[in-house]
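Dear support,

I submitted the protein below through the web form. The confirmation email said the job was done, but the results page showed an empty box. After a refresh the structure appeared. I'm attaching both so you can tell me whether what I see now is the final result or a partial one.
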Amino acid sequence: RCARLHERAARSQEAVRASRREAGECRRQLQARLVEMESLRGAHQSLERQLQELEERHNAEAAGLQDTIGQLEDDLRNTKHEMARHLREYQDLLNVKMALDIEIAAYRKLLEGEETLFNMGSGGLPSLNSLPSPTYSFQPRSFSSST
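What the results page shows now:
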């Protein structure tokens, strides 16, 4: 009976040693997993910070680009207004030019009529008739406006 108890005690001690070895191995694995978990938690926090910094940078760039777009839209609007003003000025000048061309043509007709009267009235003066009569030619330009 003692031998069996010794044998059982030896088996129990061996089982206890095996259990202690297994518990030690489990502790080592647990420590390794805890260290790995802390490392991953640190990496996660670092990535979260980087993500937040990127989002802030992106938001700042987006705001800057929105400001630039707004400024360009204002510049475009101002340029369109300026172009419209220049077009109105050009049309006004073109109208003045056309009025002046009409007035010049009228004066030219008057001068030609006076010249004809002068030539008809100086029939008794051959020396004046021998002078070449001035001729005026007017070539009006036509401008087209695409408005």
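Response: this is the final, complete result; the empty box was a page-load delay. The mean pLDDT is 86.
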